[in-house]
Design brief:
single chain, 176 residues, mainly alpha, 68% helix, TetR_CgmR_C, transcription regulation, Homeodomain-like_sf, transcription, DNA-binding
């Protein structure tokens, strides 16, 4: 099987998440029209499939946030990375699949740990930042987290005017 089968499996599993279905090797196989062994060729276990789903979502996040930077993430200051994170979270382009790390109770702790490791380069702040600057960047990150979660969970997502007001407040915080 080729990488297009792997991509089809991941897309099908994310469709299950988006529709509120339960992701398993079997349900994913049914969703994409493969046998369970066909799915297992690419993902030996459900855990491997779930980790790949987190990576698929975060690969998209990385690409979208990197597009907003002037240089690679490791070469830009924390303020620019946090702004890219804010811009992505305010874009309104997230959905239920962005909560994939929370969808399996048994794997939740491992998937959250993996999520944190992957997102840390964007939002983890250097220890040597002055306290006031660090606090402002943390506040911006928490604003972004809140918008992201509201959109992903579809629970009181902000409308365009509210997004603009949140952005204005975040810009004030970033300006210091």
């Amino acid at each position: 099987m080729n990488s297009s089968s792997r991509d089809r499996i991941l897309s099908g599993a994310l469709e299950l998440v988006r529709s509120g279905g339960t992701v398993s090797l079997e349900s994913t196989a049914r969703r994409v029209g493969l046998s369970k062994p066909g799915v297992m060729y690419h993902f030996r276990t459900k855990e491997a499939l779930m980790f790949a789903l987190v990576d698929r979502v975060l690969d998209g996040w990385d690409a979208e946030m990197a597009r907003r930077l002037s240089a690679p993430p490791e070469q830009v200051p924390a303020e620019e990375r946090v702004r890219a994170y804010l811009d992505w979270c305010l874009s309104g382009e997230v959905d239920e699949t962005d909560l994939v790390m929370l969808t399996d109770q048994r794997l939740r702790a491992k998937l959250k740990k993996h999520w944190v490791e992957r997102i840390a380069p964007w939002v983890d702040l250097p220890d040597d930042l002055p306290v006031e600057q660090r606090t402002r960047l943390l506040a911006v990150r928490l604003l972004a987290d809140g918008v992201w979660f509201a959109d992903a969970a579809d629970v009181f997502p902000p409308d365009p005017q509210e997004r603009a007001r949140v952005r204005a407040i975040a810009d004030e915080l970033l300006a210091g």
